[in-house]
Amino acid sequence: MAASNDPKTLASFINCLSRLENNTYLLYKDLADKVEAPLVRSFLLQIAIDSQKHSIALKGVAESIAKPSDNIQECEKKIGETWRIVEILLKEVKGKKKIPSGDFPKLVEKLTVLESVMGEEYYMFVQLKTLEVMMKEINRIYNIDLASVKKIFLNIIRDEETHRELLEKTKKLVTPETELDTAPVVKYQNPDAWSRPLPDTTYTA
Predict the structure, then answer these.
(1) 91 pLDDT more than 60
(2) How far apart are the C-alpha atoms of 58 and 159, rounded to whole Å?
């Protein structure tokens, strides 16, 4: 999580979030190409398209603040464990020509945890004073609607929750009912985060 109010540092962090979302898009797109069930494929493609949309939006926000660093190696340090999880899953999926139905439920559990952690990352970021600093910097340079910038992050948070719901539906489609009855409950990093109301979108300069 970015802790600096420096515009360039903030821009680099958000640019890394954009790269993370692009990697997430590649992960889901590759997964969709390797599953046979049409409905499962459509759910995965929906998440992939959302992730690509997030990547584009975040890149625009980053470049509106300052010119971000192009050093992709910095992103692993800035993003941390979430970045490494996506890289591991990307390698895991790339190493398979097809995803066997028996492997899919466990993979969906990993993806569900990933979406939960990513949503919590964005939620925490919206709560930080750094977001207000970022919005003031954008306003100083471009004089744009600041509320719309905050809504980008709030919309991503909502999308991450929708992704978890789609993954849960996907799991039910590929898991026999007998296994669903005995399946372990997935524990999230901060499950209470999803019962909290979203932050107010009103911004006061």
Answers:
(1) yes
(2) 14
Identify which has the larger pLDDT, 124 or 1: 124
Q: Which residues contact 144 (CB under 8 A, 6 or more apart)?
A: 64, 138
Q: Which pTM was predicted?
A: 0.79
Supply 158's token pair. Answer: 């909502």
pLDDT digits (tens, 9 = 90+) for 9-37: 888 888 999 999 999 999 999 999 998 88
Residue 87, number of CB atoms within 10 A of its CB = 14
CA distance 160 to 166: 10
Closest CA to 11 of 82, 53, 74: 74
Report how far residue 119's alpha carbon sits from residue 137's, in angstroms, rounded to the nearest whole number: 25
For residue 48, is it left (φ>0), alpha (ψ between -120 and 50) or beta?
alpha
